[in-house]
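The data are set out underneath:

___
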Amino acid sequence: MRLEKYSLGIGDRFGLQGTHQLRAFRMAAEKGLQISPVWNKSNREHAIIGTHPSDTRAEADEAVRDLGWRGAYFVDADHIGAATVERFIDSSDFFTIDVAEFIGTPASGDAVRTFLGAMAPLTGAIVVPGLDEPMNVDESLLRAVAAKYLNAVKEAGRVYRMILSGRRGKEFIPEVSLDESDAPQSPEELLFILGAIGAEGIPVRTIAPKFTGSFLKGIDYVGDRGAFAREFEQDLAVVAFAAGSFHLPGDLKLSVHTGSDKFSLYPLMHRAIRRFDAGLHLKTAGTTWLEEVIGLAEAGGEGLRAAKEIYTLSLGRFDELCGPYLQVISIDRSKLPSPAEVATWSGDVFAGALRHDPVHPGFNPNFRQLIHVGYKVAAEMGHRFTDLLRHNAVPVGRNVTYNLYHRHIVPLFLGAGNPD
């Protein structure tokens, strides 16, 4: 299956914005840049919204028909494991295999010995093009990698084979996700994780490591951008080297999770992928849902009332809604506006507080993060909410397309110097 050099994961929680999302990719194609859209939705999102993976497939197929899209496109079973993969097998053709819970669990002695034997030829000083210094690899390093990551790779292999069996010859894109580990992987660790993946027989196409700093939902990167840039370039170099060293697919590329809204990183990433002539998969998280709320607020009337209600109810259920996301949000409750204050806001004021525009005087990242995790409230509104999205399709769709193209695709893939 042809996954373009650049690909972008585009979650759509309520499944109504597929055509508006795809328009952003068509705009990029008109600039000469082909990007594969990948509609991604997790099992947790399906459970909360009350949808099925087949609904995501139907949305993607309908958008492709509506716009006459001729490029590759995919539907991602997002962050699945052995317990959840089966319901995605028929509808998905991109599988993000999440093995975070197996990181640090022990592999069998036989598995460790086999791994050490397979990797032994790479001990010593390894020169990886793009790295400033050779890697110094010895058995202690290999044992440390095996102790922390080998069982996770073995689990990825088990899930991969479940998908392979269930797909019955139909092709798919496998990704292995390590981004929810407790610490970033060093270049040496990433190299031998990929070695283990190759030895496990997984033809991985994208790998999602953990990066330094904080990748929080719906807001910009928090951390040392210089440190991230060095780490990102090191990972690009390692991925290219590993593809040739471990018989992995030649188009293997990095995947950046929770990558939406990381505006301060996009120029750094753009320069790096150009320097290394590397591919990239970036997975957005909840961006479309927030643009829906912004569009409703701007529409006024019932749309604005629903937006305000979503905020008020989310604030009242703060602990419940934030609990599953504590590792990826950072909300200062003292900086959240009261429901009484929000009740007085116009649509423009509400949109200004929610839209990720750091120079806007009204932007409130705490407000934005709370609504980000408050989609369960909208789901409980049922047809009232989705009917409002359909009734206000023009302002909602305009925001969805603009956000994906101008705020994400242009700075990341085209470069800031390109026209809006």
Remarks:
- The mean pLDDT is 96.
- DSSP finds 17 helices and ten strands in the chain.
